[in-house]
Amino acid sequence: MTWTEGVVTRSPLVVKVKISSPDLPYGAWKSARDHGAWTDVRVVGPRSSLARDTAGDVAAALEPWLVPHEGEVGRRITLRHLSLARVTLASEPHRVFFVVPGRDGPHVAAWPSGGRVRLIAAVALAALVALVVVSRLLA
């Protein structure tokens, strides 16, 4: 009789993926991170169950990352996602509001619009140019 012994070890492949909207300012992201009621989803098994447990657009955004890897034996997916709304009001055209579902109700963060940011940058640049011109004239 022959006895054969072996130990098979596998280290998990961990891939952290952050998918966010490209036009989300850092302050709105921080507000969402601090006040948002994030949805945690844990899926073990085939990829198709991710579509059952999440919204269709979230599952579609993750689809390219869910390609099976060589030698894959099992799969566990841990997902945190948060839906938010970007709101602009006609009465306040220079502000953008981000509404995040919070633990105690919606949380609203207000930020200047892109046009307002460009205006502030142009005014700051004009003030800097005026300062340089005046300092050159006085020197």
Explain what the structure shows.
This protein is an alpha+beta fold and 139 residues long. Helix content is 35%, strand content 26%. The protein has helices at residues 26-35, 48-53, 56-62, 114-138; strands at residues 39-44, 76-81, 85-89, 92-102, 105-112. Strands 3-4-5 form a 3-stranded antiparallel beta sheet. A hairpin with a 2-residue loop joins strand 4 (92-102) and strand 5. The longest helix is centred in the last third of the chain and has 25 residues, at 114-138.
| Number of separate strands | 5
Inertia-based shape: elongated
- How much of the sequence is in beta strands? 25-35%
What order do the strands of the largest sheet run in, or round the barrel if closed?
3-4-5
Provide a count of the helices. 4
Q: Determine the structural class based on helices, strands and strand pairing.
A: alpha+beta
Please give the alpha-carbon distance between the first and last residues. Answer: 100 Å
Provide the low-confidence segments as ranges: none
SSE string, helix = H, strand = E?
HEHHEEEEH
Main β sheet profile: 3 strands, antiparallel
What portion of residues is helical? 25-40%
Q: How large is the radius of gyration?
A: 25 Å
Report mean pLDDT, rounded to a whole number: 82
Primary descriptors:
139 residues; alpha+beta; three-stranded antiparallel sheet; two-stranded antiparallel ribbon
Give a summary of the structure in a few sentences.
The protein has 139 residues and is of the alpha+beta class.
List the helices and strands and how they pair.
Layout: H1 26-35, E1 39-44, H2 48-53, H3 56-62, E2 76-81, E3 85-89, E4 92-102, E5 105-112, H4 114-138
Antiparallel strand pairs: 1-2, 3-4, 4-5
